Amino acid sequence: MNGNRFGRLFQVTTFGESHGEAMGCTVSGCPAGLELSEEDIQADLDRRKPGQSMITTSRGEPDDVSIKSGIQDGYTTGTPIGMVIQNKDARSGKYEPFITAPRPSHGDFTYSAKFGTRNWGGGGRSSARETVNWVAAGAIAKKLLEQEGIELKAHVNQIGDIEAPEVSFEEIKAHSEENDVRCAHPETAEQMQELIAQYQEEGDSIGGSIYFEAQGVPVGLGAPRFDSLSARLGQAMMAVPATTAFEFGLGREAREWTGKERNDDWEFDSDGNPTPVENDHGGIQGGISSGEPIYGEVTLHAPTSIPKSQQTADWETGELKEEQVIGRHDPVLPPRGVPVVEAMLALTLVDFMLLSGRINPDRVDDQPGEYDTDYHPSNPNNE
Amino acid sequence: MNGNRFGRLFQVTTFGESHGEAMGCTVSGCPAGLELSEEDIQADLDRRKPGQSMITTSRGEPDDVSIKSGIQDGYTTGTPIGMVIQNKDARSGKYEPFITAPRPSHGDFTYSAKFGTRNWGGGGRSSARETVNWVAAGAIAKKLLEQEGIELKAHVNQIGDIEAPEVSFEEIKAHSEENDVRCAHPETAEQMQELIAQYQEEGDSIGGSIYFEAQGVPVGLGAPRFDSLSARLGQAMMAVPATTAFEFGLGREAREWTGKERNDDWEFDSDGNPTPVENDHGGIQGGISSGEPIYGEVTLHAPTSIPKSQQTADWETGELKEEQVIGRHDPVLPPRGVPVVEAMLALTLVDFMLLSGRINPDRVDDQPGEYDTDYHPSNPNNE
Amino acid sequence: MNGNRFGRLFQVTTFGESHGEAMGCTVSGCPAGLELSEEDIQADLDRRKPGQSMITTSRGEPDDVSIKSGIQDGYTTGTPIGMVIQNKDARSGKYEPFITAPRPSHGDFTYSAKFGTRNWGGGGRSSARETVNWVAAGAIAKKLLEQEGIELKAHVNQIGDIEAPEVSFEEIKAHSEENDVRCAHPETAEQMQELIAQYQEEGDSIGGSIYFEAQGVPVGLGAPRFDSLSARLGQAMMAVPATTAFEFGLGREAREWTGKERNDDWEFDSDGNPTPVENDHGGIQGGISSGEPIYGEVTLHAPTSIPKSQQTADWETGELKEEQVIGRHDPVLPPRGVPVVEAMLALTLVDFMLLSGRINPDRVDDQPGEYDTDYHPSNPNNE
Amino acid sequence: MNGNRFGRLFQVTTFGESHGEAMGCTVSGCPAGLELSEEDIQADLDRRKPGQSMITTSRGEPDDVSIKSGIQDGYTTGTPIGMVIQNKDARSGKYEPFITAPRPSHGDFTYSAKFGTRNWGGGGRSSARETVNWVAAGAIAKKLLEQEGIELKAHVNQIGDIEAPEVSFEEIKAHSEENDVRCAHPETAEQMQELIAQYQEEGDSIGGSIYFEAQGVPVGLGAPRFDSLSARLGQAMMAVPATTAFEFGLGREAREWTGKERNDDWEFDSDGNPTPVENDHGGIQGGISSGEPIYGEVTLHAPTSIPKSQQTADWETGELKEEQVIGRHDPVLPPRGVPVVEAMLALTLVDFMLLSGRINPDRVDDQPGEYDTDYHPSNPNNE
After folding, report:
1. Which residues are noted in the entry as FMN-binding (chains A, B, C, D) (predicted)?
2. Closest to C68 (Cβ–Cβ): which among D20, D75, D118?
3. Do the chains contact at D116 and C361, CB–CB below 8 Å?
4. B274 versus A55: which is more confidently predicted?
5. Calpha distance D163→A255 (Å, rounded)
6. C286-306: per-residue pLDDT in tens?
7. Is D126 marked as binding a ligand?
8. Contact criterion met (CB below 8 Å) for B144 and B353
9. Is C107 close to B287, i.e. CB distance below 8 A?
């Protein structure tokens, strides 16, 4: 089992190495009848694409996605959607020094120890380049969720010790894409940018975090216990490269709150249904969605590839040596991580929408009826 | 869950439609260090390739496989192996009459009813063209099994009412590829060929069966009950297009045998280990491999695409009409099914070899040590 | 992975050995609101229970099921249903001679070789006693299917060389439980009974087969390719103890039919939907249900435990010896196998009903509304 | 899929409600030959048992585990281990007021909304009582890990605003069980106890956190990407009731560290293998274990059941009302959560030990050879 699959009913399977020929992603379980084009996917790919600003690697990858199957006349057919993204600008030469001398805190050593070998160009399979596949799959999930009235968005809420004040979901939607840092609070964004530039000059890098939120999630998503919504979000987010912490609702802070403070009383909504007065619970109660917005944070450590000199141990020569990771690298990860976190959030939610029967697994409702018969899954009596 | 995945530890994920842009297959769980090239895979692809003889469709597909990831310096890296096979010779025009008028006993109607739409060119996702992916994955499984001393082979043992006499495993290896029918018994092969030609002239097609055998399978493969070796072989073989029956050991005939007749007494082998005197049990006892050869049969019904006129019902016009499936089709399936059955047998066995710990999931032993360290999985004490 | 799980969404997990303290089965994925009692389950357990007639083992097991969770006020709650069935009449003494001297064609040797040990009393985990769990889970699946208008039934259609003529689904429902052999054709049942008695006297046993059929299955069940309805039925049925062959539709006979003969033309049903003129395809086309009855056969070899003397090899003493399996055994398996085959058919179908969205995974519709709110999964807008 | 399963190869399946008849857990995939008794499991169950001190609920549950299968002569047989724990001291009466008036921040509302009903006694399936199953399964995992030289331990490192100073693994092993709070730093433990008592008097509750650490974990556990060690730990820990945050290594703090600060240089260990100078990476690099200790923290919010009056909305009467959760409840969760977190850590690690081939899936090495033959899985050539 080598970790390239995500999802129970909305299944994503990936392949590819940073400097390999291509990245690839197969999405199974997407219902038929969803209007989908390469453009829909490209939009999100462009948000995580390298070379989009001063604070991202200068590697020049167009990241053009090519859909190989699962689409007909602009709509999904319910069968697997195969996607391939060619790698264009790979320059492995710079990595030769590290073949047997692992870069500090990278996957170089662990991959070689596990497999006895590794694809070393650009970090190979351990490179964050893999997330191009996740974003491609996530874009499809987002389209399905939109049809169900579910909106989700993320933004960068902290870089180093610079933290953004709380901003509303509306503000995130309005401003997170307005600056290179992807922070929805313009003033903070500027300070973050300066801080990043400073570390970049020093040949160092810095950590940060991403805030995510989903609205319009119906009550009842998530299975009790091991497959709770929080457990599956935990897996999804902790899989994001460089993530060291996942929090939802009050997160880490909950340890200092009392029951009375944190508990959310019940009142009635306009439909006369029980609804919580506050949302300190973060939209999940007993592992199941409560109908309130789901929000949380993901912490990404500083990029491990830095120009500053570091010590490594060459297992071939048996010598210690100083090395500098030249290559082309990001000084900070959250800005490009925003679409990745959104993708993992979307993939987790769409899976539960299918698992709870809220999205029909065979076909969406607004599909083109061209070849339709009366045997609609939601019409078991064939009426 | 839309059925494009096979295997628990040796995982195959596929995509592609008969007349789509490309077929694709991602293999996860293949240990690192296996010497592997596109040629290794091509050899088997050429055996199932169309246009290889008079009794196969004339569709001209080179079926060249392109490996996109998971290989370095000619060896697997333990990470996903992405493969793509372009579709070259697709002519969908001929299928237009069937878009709303399903071909008899095809998947046309069921796919459209389930998904509300379907990729209709050449049968789309329901086409046996999908098996090109299975054969590609199976070729990798075969290489792994060979290293463990496991050999497997299949041949066509019946076409229509012409049945081949029992032949030995050695004969199958020696003769099954010598004729277009892939029957290891030359005289029978000739009769089969004549019979096929006759039906072909009549614009009809005919059914048949494939015999498979695996030797060198160690004792202990298969998990009790639902994941028994026979249960998983059952799933694997019944997934082969057009299969209507799966049998192992005595198969259907076992219903007429008594316990005393069928039971295999025990004796000792040269190592002093218990070994069955006969192999009426087909190499599986209590769902677990006994160390004896595993053998069985798969029945494939006649191709459903025939030039002979048949009646269909057009759900758009509401009219009944006579139609002839022109296209380019095989008059019989087993000859091209042989490598497919071998592939499913190999995929099932290699999965159990990994599940039983007989093949190391991280890396094979004879791998290139170039980047090796002392942390070999089979060396937990790091000695 | 040790094979005690079945189902993707309707999940069955089992434990227990023939002479252990108890058998147990946990069913997850059964929607809330299904009226269910121990009596519903007991009815089927009594059909497979030992000691019910002259032609079954005399072992005296009441097989009383005890539901430990998942039910409240007579309805399922949507959470796991834990069931335990105590073993009462275990007499392991008779098995001591076989601890190191495997019974011919049993799982004794393969289990010991795989695990290095085994629970030897009564065959331990390899005993068909395990199927008591399957029948318990199957009874729940049947109740769910009945609510969807799906009926299924099996009967014994062959014992040794005595084969029953074709009988209708109505006849099977009417007569299969009228005789000890569970053959829906009374005259044939008598001959079968005589044949069985004859082998029983000789201290031998005999094989046979079971015919199964399901009606009311909607169009569209089954996922393309590896998870086709036929592939999953193949796994389910090949898991049934002593099964050596699985066939559906024409089964093995399909090898002798031409395309023109086997293909089923299309006409229109009273609703104006396409429907096949015949059902030679067995209710499955392209791996997906066609709406026609699903039918097939399962072959069970003769019981391996026979009083007749057989040779075994004792791996402790290194000696060959003659042994007789005294114990208490069935002379033939199909009569008690009928409810087991029905259970596996029901478990396979209910799983696909959930996977296709036809059965709501969270709750059935006719549930008691006592604690209901308006947030019904099938009511995403909470109207 | 209703969330009662954990693990890929070491599979845990659970059932049971807080006030139901019994809790149950089936463990599949435990190799044969592990010495195991009910006492081994009871030891950990007693650590999470209610009524063990002033700061735990007074509910009187002996939590005696009964093993129903999978063990013979004191050793595992490689087949499923069925365990049942009876519920003895259930008093549901106190919960009647909440049937249609959900307790604030409990699972009452979400369960009822999802399933249309729920087992309301004591929280039913959503109760933390479920973790008795996890601890039982975890105890088996721990025994397997110990044989491989892997040790793991947890302790309470924060309650409210009282945080314990950093303590060594040795100190945790020595002192965490010495006080009711399970904090390995005695002085802090006292302060925590006072704080808890204070909130308890006020009829309120308080949050806290658990620190966990595993030593002796070999290099190479974890699959790249979605199944990385950190991703699977994320799922495991976020499934722990009341968890709102999971962190490993520097966790949330990593957002303020630079790459140079956080990166761990390489040196050589005494065997000449590369080893990190520090362990800021928390034992996981590129999602794979580095051989360094794995450590992290889990935050548990305050218990939601408090005597203090809170507002709820009764969906039957449509009235708002004040309610007090009388029942018998814990004022703080971490003390009893320690064995639960250890269990989830053990279950995650043992699964990867099996997945990486480090633990033989069929049988451990030091098993009793009584029924052994020479066909050892680790001896494919049967030598």
Report:
1. 125-127, 286, 301-305, 328
2. D20
3. no
4. B274
5. 10
6. 999 999 999 999 999 999 999
7. yes
8. yes
9. yes
Chain B nearest-CA distance from D80, in A, is 10
| Nearest residue in D to B220, CA atom | D377
The pLDDT mean for chain C works out to 91
Residues of chain A with pLDDT > 90, as a percent, come to 77
Sequential DSSP letters for C2-15? -S-EE-SSSEEEEE
**Residues paired with A245 in a beta bridge:** A299, D247
In a domain, D321, yes or no: yes
- CA angle, corner C185, sides to C179 and C190, nearest 5? 55
Of D4, D106, D110, the CB nearest to A225: D4
| Highest mean pLDDT: which range of B10-14, C90-94, D43-47 | B10-14
- Write out pLDDT tens, residues D163-193: 999 999 999 999 999 999 999 999 999 999 9
DSSP letters along D141-199, please?
HHHHHHHTT-EEEEEEEEETTEEPPP--HHHHHHHTTSSTT--SSHHHHHHHHHHHHHH
Give the least confident one: A244-258, B30-44, B299-313, C93-107: C93-107
Residue D141 sits at φ, ψ, to 5 deg, of: -60, -40
Residue of D298 and C378 predicted with greater confidence? D298
Instruction: Provide the domain limits for residue B291.
Output: 5-356
- Rounded CA-CA distance B109/B92 in Å is 18
D271 vs B79: CB contact, 8 Å cut-off?
Answer: no
DSSP string covering A335-375, please? HHHHHHHHHHHHHHHHHHHHHTTSS-SSB-TT---TT--S-
Q: In this structure, which amino acid lies at residue C181?
A: V
CA distance B213 to B208: 17
B184 among the known binding-site residues?
Answer: no
Is A380 within a domain? no
In terms of pTM, does the model score above 0.90?
yes
Q: Where are the beta strands (DSSP E) in D11-110?
A: 11-15, 22-28, 65-67, 71-72, 75-76, 81-86
Cross-strand pairs, A314: A319
What are A251-305's pLDDT values in tens digits? 999 999 999 999 999 999 988 889 999 999 999 999 999 999 999 999 999 999 9
- Contact between D268 and A88 under an 8 Å Cβ cutoff? The reply is no
Give all strands of the β-sheet with A22-28 in edge-to-edge order: A5-6, A11-15, A22-28, A81-86, A65-67
Share of chain A above pLDDT 70, in %: 94
Query: Measured between CB atoms, which of C104, C107, C249 is closest to B264?
Result: C104
pLDDT of residue D373: 46
CA distance D112 to C329: 48
How many angstroms separate the CA atoms of D238 and A230, rounded?
6
Looking up residue A53, the CATH number of its domain turns out to be 3.60.150.10
Asked, for residue A185, whether it belongs to a domain, the answer is: yes
Of D208, D235, D285, the CB nearest to A105: D285
In degrees, rounded to 5, the angle at the alpha carbon of residue D85 between the alpha carbons of residues D84 and D89 is: 150
Q: Choose, out of C219, C263, C316, the residue to mutate when testing the contact with B (most B CBs < 10 Å).
A: C263
B378 domain residue, yes or no: no
Binding residue positions of A for NADP(+): 48
Task: Name the residue of chain D whose CA is nearest to C316's CA.
Answer: D371
Distance CA A353, CA A45 (A): 24
Say how many domains are in chain B: 1
Buried-state track A367-381, b at ≥16 Cβ within 10 A, e below 16 = beeebbbebbbeebe
Report the run of H or E that residue A14 belongs to, with start and end. Answer: strand A11-15
Instruction: Give the tokens for residue D315.
Output: 């969906």
Residue A211 and residue A169 in contact, taking contact as beta carbons nearer than 8 Å:
no
C158 contacts in chain B (CB < 8 Å): 255
